[in-house]
Structure formats: C-alpha cells, structure tokens
Specification:
The protein is mainly beta. The chain has 2 helices and 9 strands, in the order αββββββββαβ. Strand 7 and strand 8 form a beta hairpin. The chain starts with 17 loop residues before the first helix and ends in a 10-residue tail after the last strand.
Length: 148
C-alpha cells in the first residue's frame, strides 16, 4: 500500500489512487520548474463572471497558456499568440483529444503584458469556485535573452 509523500526538488510520489497506480498501465509525468521571466505555473479560482473573470499575474507576456479545471472538467485547453494574434482571444486547442481548434465567446481571455485575464465563463477556464491550473510560457523571455 503506497502512501503520499510531499514533493521535494528532486522527487514526488503518486500515493495509492488506482487512477495513477494501476498495474500494467503506462503513465507520463510532465514536471516543470519555473524560470523567472520565462515560465509560470500555478492555479486560480474561477468566479464564473463572463466579463470580469480572474486576472493572473505571470510576470511576463504569455505566448502559450494551457488550462485544466481540476474540480469538474476533463479538458486541457491551449491558447497561443501564433494562431490568434490579438485580444480578445477565444480559439482553443484541446490537448487531451484529437479535435480541431474551436472558437467560442465562452472561452475568451486577454493576453496582457504581465499575465492574462479571463473573460469567458466556460467551466474549463472560469467555473465559479473551481480551481483551474495553468502553465504559461513567455512570448519574449527576458531571463535567458542575450544582447548582440
């Protein structure tokens, strides 16, 4: 019987839940470390407001963001500034299925110079009271840039 151990800078454990420890199953873990001015990972709580959703400070202008509501949604949504070059952005890709990109006003976000603002009320990005994870990578990372 496995038990949960708090993660450290070098290890993590999965505990004993059958969704992540089934015998004969294959699992993939993506483990990230934040780099100031380049990447930010965290969570926020949705408020369900279709015009004034949460603002998330990332300390960079995001180029790519992935969202996952950990309470009620199964989708992993991706926004990026290459496919949609201006605000309000509402075109998503779902990372966990093979669907084509999809646009809808319920999925609206703004990319800002220092983070992002949720404008839509879709449960995957803004269900009231739910916790939404995000992964953000900078458009112009300052941390590792080099002058000529």
């Amino acid at each position: 019987n496995k038990t949960y151990t708090a993660p450290t800078s070098t290890v993590y454990s999965l505990g004993d839940h059958p969704s992540v420890t089934a015998s004969g199953s294959t699992y993939v873990a993506y483990v990230f470390s934040e780099v100031a001015g380049y990447s930010k990972f965290g969570s926020y709580v949705g408020n369900g407001d279709s015009e004034n959703g949460p603002f998330v400070f990332t300390n960079h202008r995001p180029a790519w963001i992935m969202f996952k509501n950990i309470n009620t949604a199964t989708w992993w949504f991706i926004y990026d500034v290459k496919r949609e070059t201006f605000n309000v952005m509402n075109t998503i890709l779902a990372a966990n299925v093979s669907d084509q990109e999809y646009s809808d006003s319920h999925y609206e976000i703004d990319i800002l110079s220092n983070g992002f603002k949720i404008r839509g009320q879709q449960p995957e990005i803004n269900k009231s009271g739910d916790t939404i994870l995000y992964f953000s990578f900078a458009e112009l990372p300052f941390k590792n840039s080099r002058a000529r």
